[in-house]
Amino acid sequence: MTTTPYWLDRPLDPVGSAVAKPKVDVVVIGAGVTGCSCALALAERGLSVRLLDTNAVASGASGRNGGFALGGGAMSYLDARSRLGTAGARQLWQLADLGLDRLESLAGDAFRRVGSLRLAADRAELETIEAEGEALREDGFAVEAAGSLPPVLAGLYAGAIRYPRDGAVDPPRWVRRLAARAATVGVEIVERRPVEADALDAFDAVVVVATDGLIASLLPELATHVVAVRGQMLATAPLAELRFPHPHYAREGFDYWQQLPDGRLLIGGCRDQDVGNEYTASDATTGAVQREIEQLATRLVGHLPPVTHRWSGAWGETADLLPLVGRVPGRDRIWVAGGYSGHGNVLGLVCGELLARAIVGETAAGIELFDPTRFG
Prior knowledge:
It is a single chain. An eight-stranded mixed sheet has the order 6-7-5-12-13-14-11-15. Strands 9-2-1-10-17-16 form a six-stranded mixed sheet, covered by helices on one side. By secondary structure, it is an alpha/beta fold. Helix 1 packs parallel to helix 5 (about 170-185), helix 1 (about 35-45) packs parallel to helix 8 and helix 2 packs across helix 8. It folds into two domains: about 15-65 and about 170-225 and about 320-375, FAD/NAD(P)-binding domain (3-Layer(bba) Sandwich), CATH 3.50.50.60; about 115-165 and about 225-315, 2-Layer Sandwich (D-Amino Acid Oxidase, Chain A, domain 2), CATH 3.30.9.10. It has eight helices and 17 strands. About 50% of the residues are buried. Strand 12 (about 250) and strand 13 form a beta hairpin.
């Protein structure tokens, strides 16, 4: 048994690095999907960029998540319509759709566009997700009826809808490919380089903080706006048959799993069983949540398969479930992108590119949805 994430417990391709420069235009802190995306987009626009990470590329949330590549945002589409208006909700979902297409074009075989299945735990949740599906269809987004569920799921859930444009991603393999692409266009990648909060203003460059759940450690003034949330997971030995062809999520996202092509089941969530202790940046696993995940695996499979890996990772969550993307209030040379509330695989790619466009003065349509000044 190991507490190394399954995704990171394998040989991974090297990322490379451009030759070190004595001075750069931009320093990007955090070599996850957002940092790699932003660094790549900046370098493609002619800026010299240094990408720093305390550990290694994709070693944080970008290498510890469930491998879901989902459209939309963390809030429901009905909530988005209510809070952002129809135009704002459509813009957010359109940005995510563009992000899915961009991910597919860059990730190669690290991305499988197999759709996702959203399951309802009871009749009330089914009515909610069906209403959301209808609203999405009205606004031009692809949603399908799931039809009859297979017996194992029909016995546990009231129904489901399917999002055909979603997919499954191998998180560190994809992000390291993104980093390698950035290196080929001149990004200097420096791993195992910790940065302290008081060092940000000392950089003779524009600074981008792209550390998602760890934003507060570098920007304490944002600590009340982006809080760390721990997500725990486990991986099983390969099952004999492929039972779950799509990423699945249920109970408003508190339960989630996917089965890899080799039959292995990756399953996580259940943090609501001990939610008070899950608002933390700690990457330790806990018995309370791991036991709940084991029980979910047992319900899905009929027995508990051998567990090979247990791990956790922290993401950044905001009060309104929208990321923070833009210039840090009162810090002219410091920019931030993070707080994806568990939807960073796609939105992180999108927001990294949006931030790069804003830094160079290009139009970055949609970034206004994520303005860091919105909390006052």
